[in-house]
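User: structure tokens for this one?
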Amino acid sequence: MSPRVIVIGGSAGALEVLLAILPTLPATRTTPIVIVLHLAPTPPSLVPALLERATALRVIEVEDKQPLLPGTIHVAPANYHVLFERDATLALSVDEAVNFSRPSIDVSFESVARAFGPGAIGILLSGANDDGAVGLWHIAEAGGLAVVQDPATARQPIMPRAAIHLLRTRARVAAPGNIAAILAGSEDGPGVQEQAG
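Assistant:
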């Protein structure tokens, strides 16, 4: 099954990885990407503008009830959880912080697993806590592809290590260059799913 959405989560050290891999993505790709980073709770966030300068794809900040748009990177706003609906729209929530974070990566990963099942790819990058591990497990459990940055390449390895410990062989561990290749090839259909291991 070709992926319907890619969700990338991370915290400390994740932005530098994104700024390295996003320039490699072809402008013609269509699978929507949603990025959930731990942000300071006070808007406005500078992240969308930074990412926009690094990619040929359109970059927008998520608004409530917004449809997932092809060829677009959707960035979670500060102080909101991002939820996925089965009709391919996004919702914002001000529910309590999870893992001391809002937006929480776990919340978005678990939500996309419920909404998209095997059509979801979850990618967890560098970070200094264990947010995202449980959510990535839900993506794998639903038949989606779970990818974790190789902790040896992460500025803060706690987040990827937690995911690897929980998922074990169900997570595909990849250095940033290989994550870029996964993203670039994620519209090729079943081939990406076969690599999930």
